[in-house]
Amino acid sequence: MNNTDYIPIASLNHYSYCPHRCWRMFCAGEFSENYYTIDGTSLHDRVHTVGESQREEVWQVRAIWLKSQQYHLIGKSDLIESESGELYPVEYKRGRKGEWDNDELQVCAQALCLAEMTGQSIHQGYIYYAYSHQRQFVEISDALRQETLDILESVKMLMNSGEMPKPIYTKRCKGCSFYPQCLPQAAKKVGRYREEE
After folding, report:
1. Could you give the CA distance from residue 79 to residue 70 in angstroms, rounded to a whole number?
2. What is the CA radius of gyration of the chain?
3. Is 167 exposed, middle or buried (0-12, 13-18, 19+ CB in 10 A)?
4. What is the pLDDT of residues 103-132, one digit of tens each?
5. Which residues have a Cβ under 8 Å from the Cβ of 148 and sit 6 or more positions away?
6. Within its chain, how far is the Cα of 103 from the centroid?
7. 133-147 per-residue burial string, b: 16 or more CB within 10 A, e: under 16
């Protein structure tokens, strides 16, 4: 990675979910399918139809690219809405409302790009969860901005070093498409097996 490279907005979400997963996707260029990724891709294929519309008092534009020169971020938005003159991003996810906090980082990163591109302050965003058909409000607070920038620095360090983080087992692993490849519990089992020899 060099100084002109841009960090994909989605990489912040993946890094917060699991640094090992982020490395596999954005450093090693790997991708592995499972039910969740196929379902998520299908959702985004429906959402990422470029266009704009008006729903009552809300103007909507879908699938536009967001970019920040200040933070070296880039990514495609699912939906940008404007209501009463205020812009905000809406990120679509396949799961349930409030499952993981890493989705909020992605919304905040989009808000940072949108603010730079428009010159407006962005105070809120939403995550739309397709499974539950619910929106989760995301306050773009100073604390969330700082957490997002901290994760961004961690992603930059990961991409600059190229070093693979060790897989660490958590309950999030069950839904991860890379689980069969990284086998986060294998190191412990091998260690116990060697101790018993």
Report:
1. 22
2. 18
3. buried
4. 999 999 999 999 999 999 999 999 998 888
5. 12, 105, 108, 109, 112
6. 6
7. eeebebebeeebeeb
Query: How far is 29 from 22, CA to CA, in rounded Å?
Result: 10
DSSP 67: E
Tokens of 147: 């957490």
* C-alpha to C-alpha distance for 44 and 47, rounded to whole angstroms: 5
One-letter amino acid at 178 equals: F
- pTM listed for this prediction: 0.81
What pLDDT is attached to residue 2?
Answer: 62
Please state the length of the chain: 197
C-alpha span between 129 and 115 (Å, rounded): 24
Distance CA 100, CA 111 (A): 19
